[in-house]
Design goal:
Largest sheet: 5 strands, mixed, barrel
Helix content: 25-40%
Shape: globular
Number of helices: 17
Number of domains: 6
Distance between the termini: 50 Å
Number of strands: 34
Radius of gyration: 28 Å
Strand order of the largest sheet: 4-5-6-8-7
Length: 762
C-alpha cells in the first residue's frame, strides 16, 4: 500500500515538473500520453491521476481540455477567505501573497472553499494582487448554522459566521417547523452562483436565539463537532469494567506503593497524568510520568476507537466539555482518580542537575494515585507557605519542593537551547447555570502549571526520540521553520521598537527567545508576542519526522493526554505493540498506510476545536460587555490595522477603535512600523500604548465590540450616543424584496472594491 502511494506521489511530481518546464505548453490528454510515453493499457490510470490532480488544484483542465499548472497560466489555487463587507481573498496553496477578490468577482464561492482564481492585476514592485474566482475545487460548507427569518412563502437563514456572505434561501417545504428568530442548522442543497444566493433545507432547529445554551450549541454545530455519542459507542463504554481486576495487572510493573499525585485545574474531570519524584543519592532526580492506559479499553477498530478518531480531540467550552471518549471512560476507569488502582503507561527518567536525561525506562504499570492536587493548592504550598495546606499534604510537601527545583532546571535547559516561551495570560470565563457570563478573569500561569508543563514536555521528547531511533511508524508533533519573508517583516516591526531579530533570514528559535527576554515587562510585550506568534507556522501532527521549531526540540510527540487527544492514543497503541513484540512487518505496513490520514484528520479536528473554543470565548466576552455600553475603560493598544486599532482591557476583552471615529485628525497607517500617524498633529498610536476608551456598541452575534477614544479633557456631551447593537433601518418588506431579487439573480452586479486595507476589512 505504501509503495503504491509513493509511486503515485512520484508520478504526480514528475507530471508537475514536466508541466512547469519553460518549453511546456498546455496539452490534451492524448498528447500528454504520447509525450509521457504511457502505454495504452496504463492510460486509464493516467486519466485517473490527472483527474485527481485537477480536483486537488495541482493542475488545471481548460475548456479546450488542455492540461497545465495554474501558476504558468495566470491562475492561483488556494483557499477562499470571505469578508463581511462582501469582498474576499484567495490564500494560495503555494505560500504566495494573497489575491484580493472584489465582491463582483467571487462568483458563488463561500468562505473556506478551495478555489482557482485568475489574476487580473499585479502591479510591478507591489505585493497587491487582484483577481476573480473561475472555479470551485472543493466546497467547505455542507451545513451552515444561522438565524432563521421567514415570510408567508419562503425563509432565509443569515449565517452566524460573519465571513459567510449572503443569506441562504429556504423554500417553504424545507423549513422543518422553524420559527422566526430561531437558530437552525441548514444543509445546502444548491450552491450559490454569481448574484444568486445558496439554497438549503433546515435539518435541525437548535432553539430560540436567547434560550440558554443555544449560543454555544450554534458554535458546536457550525464547526461540525460531534456532540452526542452513537448508541453503539455508549454500549461499548458501559460494557467496560469500572474497576481494575487482578487479571489486568498481570505482566505490568506494580507501582501502587510509589508516592504520586495528579495536579490539574479545579474543574478537571479527565485526569490523564500523574507524577512522582525521588531525589537519588547521587544528587540526580528520578522523575516518573504516569499516563492513563486508554488503549487497554479502547481497542483498534472498535466503535469507541472509530468515534475517538472522528472527534480527534476533546473540546472545552466555558459551560461544558465535549469529550473525545464517553464519560464512563474519560471521567472514570481511564481517569487517574485518587485512591483507586489504575492502569498506566509509565516513563521513569533519571535527570541530572543540568536537566539532562541520563537514563530512562518506558513500561506498562499499575498505579494508585495518593492525592488529587490542584494548581491553586500546589501554588499556595510552594509560594504562599500555606500552613493549613502544608499540614494537610505533609507527606508530599518535600516532593512539591523537589518538583519545583527540577521544573526550573528543565525550563533553564530549554532556554539555553533556544526554546521559545510565550507568556500569554489566558481568559477564564465564568458562567452561571444558564450559561450567562458573570465574570471574566485574567488567568496567570504559576509555578504549579510550570511543573506539569515541564514534566510533560520532557516526557514527550524522551518518548519521541526513543521510538524515532527504533525506526517504527509514529505520530510526531512537528513545527516547521518560519517563512523567511515573515521573519523579515517581523524584524522590520521590531526595528521600529528598537529591537533586532538576529539572523532573521535563517532564524534560529534562540533569536526569537532573546527578543522575548528583551521585551519582558515592557508595554509592548503582549502585542509583540502576538505578532511573533502569528509570524510562525502552526504546529501539526505528521507521520514524517521534522523537528519542533518553537520548542527547539529535535524530537517531539504528544504522548501524555490519551483521554482527550487521539494522536496520544494511537502512539500508545504502537508503543505497546513494540514493547510486547507484536509490531511485526504486517503491523508496521498497516500503520504506515493509515498514519498519513490519521495525522491529517487529527490536525484538522484540532484546528476546528481551537476555532470553536475561541469563537465561544469571544461570544461570551461580547455578551458580558452588552450591559456596559457607555462605560469608560483604560486599555492597551493590542493591534493596528489600516481600518483602526484594537484595544485590550485588563479583563482580556478586546474591541475595535475604528479609524473613522478618530476625528481629531486624519490618520495614516504605517504598515512597516505598525502605527497610526496623524497628518496634522503627527500624533502616533503604537502597539503597547495605554489609551482611554468608551464602549459604544456590542454585537454579540458577530462577536464585535466597538470603542471610541476619549481624552481626559473630553466633554462627555460630545461623546456619541451609545448603541447596543445594529438596528434595522429598512422595513422588513424592503429587505424581503431585495432577498427575492438576489435569489432569482435579478439584482445587478455589485461594484467590486478596487483597493483593500487588509484581510480583515473594516
Amino acid at each position: 500500500m505504501e509503495m503504491e502511494l509513493e509511486m503515485m506521489e512520484e508520478r504526480k511530481q514528475r507530471i508537475l515538473a514536466f508541466m512547469r518546464e519553460q518549453s511546456y505548453k498546455p496539452l490534451k490528454f492524448s498528447e500528454l500520453a504520447v509525450v509521457l510515453d504511457v502505454p495504452k493499457e496504463d492510460r486509464p490510470a493516467l486519466q485517473e491521476l490527472l483527474d485527481e490532480m485537477a480536483k486537488d488544484g495541482l493542475i488545471i483542465k481548460t475548456r479546450k481540455e488542455r492540461y497545465g499548472v495554474p501558476d504558468r497560466m495566470g491562475l492561483i489555487a488556494g483557499r477562499f477567505q470571505g469578508n463581511p463587507r462582501g469582498f474576499g481573498f484567495v490564500l494560495p496553496d503555494m505560500g504566495e501573497d494573497d489575491v484580493f477578490i472584489p465582491a463582483n468577482a467571487i462568483n458563488g464561492a463561500m468562505h473556506g472553499d478551495r478555489v482557482i482564481a485568475r489574476l487580473h492585476k499585479s502591479i510591478p514592485g507591489e505585493k497587491h494582487r487582484e483577481g476573480e474566482i473561475i472555479q470551485i475545487i472543493e466546497r467547505a460548507n455542507k451545513t451552515v448554522v444561522g438565524k432563521f427569518d421567514k415570510s408567508d412563502h419562503f425563509g432565509f437563514v443569515t449565517p452566524d459566521h460573519t465571513r459567510l456572505i449572503g443569506d441562504i434561501y429556504i423554500p417553504k417545504d424545507y423549513m422543518n417547523g422553524a420559527q422566526k428568530g430561531q437558530k437552525v442548522v441548514v444543509e445546502i442543497t444548491k450552491w450559490p452562483e454569481a448574484n444568486r444566493n445558496a439554497e438549503g433545507r433546515i435539518i435541525e432547529v437548535l432553539g430560540d436565539e436567547n434560550e440558554a445554551g443555544v449560543d454555544v450549541m450554534s458554535i458546536i454545530r457550525a464547526y461540525n463537532i460531534p456532540y452526542e455519542f452513537p448508541e453503539e459507542v455508549i454500549n461499548e463504554a458501559k460494557a467496560v469494567p469500572d474497576k481494575v481486576s487482578e487479571e489486568d495487572t498481570k505482566n505490568r510493573r506494580d507501582l501502587r506503593r510509589l508516592r504520586m499525585v495528579t495536579i490539574d485545574g479545579e474543574d478537571a474531570r479527565d485526569l490523564d497524568d500523574a507524577v512522582s519524584i525521588e531525589e537519588l543519592p547521587n544528587g540526580n532526580y528520578r522523575l516518573g510520568v504516569h499516563i492513563a492506559d486508554v488503549t487497554n479499553y479502547v481497542k483498534e477498530g472498535s466503535a469507541l476507537d472509530t468515534e475517538a478518531l472522528r472527534r480527534g480531540t476533546s473540546v472545552y467550552f466555558p459551560d461544558r466539555v465535549i469529550p473525545m471518549l464517553p464519560k464512563e471512560l474519560s471521567n472514570n476507569i481511564c481517569s487517574l482518580n485518587a485512591k483507586v488502582d489504575r492502569l498506566a503507561f509509565s516513563v521513569m527518567m533519571e535527570i541530572d542537575g543540568q536537566g539532562n536525561v541520563v537514563d530512562y525506562e518506558i513500561f506498562e504499570s499499575v498505579i494508585n494515585v495518593n492525592e488529587r492536587m490542584t494548581y491553586t493548592n500546589v501554588y499556595k504550598i510552594l509560594e504562599e507557605n500555606d500552613e493549613e495546606l502544608k499540614e494537610r499534604y505533609k507527606d508530599h510537601v518535600k516532593d512539591f519542593e523537589d518538583m519545583k527545583k527540577l521544573a526550573l532546571i528543565l525550563k533553564e535547559r530549554r532556554r539555553r537551547r533556544g526554546s521559545v516561551d510565550f507568556d500569554f495570560d489566558e481568559a477564564k470565563v465564568i458562567v452561571d447555570e444558564n450559561g450567562k457570563t458573570v465574570d471574566i478573569k485574567r488567568y496567570k500561569m504559576t509555578i504549579a502549571n510550570n511543573i506539569i508543563e515541564e514534566f510533560m514536555l520532557l516526557c514527550n521528547e524522551v518518548v519521541s526520540e526513543h521510538f524515532y531511533w527504533i525506526g517504527v511508524p509514529f505520530v510526531y508533533r512537528i513545527h516547521e521553520d518560519p517563512d523567511p519573508e515573515k521573519m523579515e517583516t517581523l524584524n522590520n516591526i521590531l526595528g521600529s521598537y528598537g529591537y533586532k531579530l538576529k539572523g532573521y533570514r535563517d532564524v534560529h528559535p534562540r533569536a526569537l527567545q532573546e527578543v522575548l527576554t528583551q521585551i519582558k515587562g515592557k508595554p509592548e510585550e503582549k502585542a509583540i508576542e502576538m505578532i511573533m506568534l502569528r509570524s510562525l507556522q502552526k504546529a501539526r501532527y505528521s507521520d514524517i519526522h521534522v523537528w519542533h521549531f518553537g520548542l527547539a526540540a529535535e524530537y517531539y510527540s504528544h504522548f501524555t493526554s490519551p483521554i482527550r487527544r487521539y494522536p496520544d492514543l494511537i502512539i500508545h497503541r504502537i508503543m505497546k505493540e513494540q514493547i510486547n513484540g507484536q509490531l511485526n512487518e504486517k503491523r508496521i505496513e498497516h500503520y504506515k498506510s493509515i498514519l498519513p490520514d490519521v495525522t491529517k484528520q487529527c490536525s484538522d479536528r484540532e484546528k476546528a476545536a481551537e476555532d470553536a473554543e475561541r469563537d465561544c470565548i469571544d461570544l461570551k466576552k461580547a455578551e458580558f460587555m452588552v450591559d456596559k455600553v457607555g462605560e469608560q475603560f483604560e486599555g492597551i493598544i493590542s493591534g493596528i490595522t489600516g481600518f483602526g486599532m484594537f484595544v485590550e482591557l485588563e479583563n482580556t476583552v478586546e474591541g475595535l477603535v475604528r479609524l473613522s471615529s478618530m476625528d481629531d485628525d486624519y490618520y495614516n497607517y504605517d504598515e512597516k512600523s505598525l502605527c497610526l500617524i496623524g497628518e496634522r498633529t503627527r500624533k502616533v498610536y503604537r502597539i503597547g500604548d495605554k489609551v482611554n476608551v468608551q464602549l459604544i456598541k456590542v454585537t454579540p452575534e458577530s462577536r464585535q465590540i466597538d470603542f471610541i477614544l476619549i481624552d481626559e479633557d473630553d466633554d462627555e456631551s460630545d461623546n456619541p450616543e451609545p448603541v447596543i447593537r445594529e438596528s434595522g433601518k429598512r422595513r422588513e418588506d424592503d429587505i424581503e424584496k431585495e432577498r427575492i431579487l438576489m435569489n432569482i439573480g435579478a439584482r445587478g452586479k455589485a461594484k467590486g472594491k478596487k483597493k483593500s486595507t487588509g484581510k480583515n476589512g473594516g
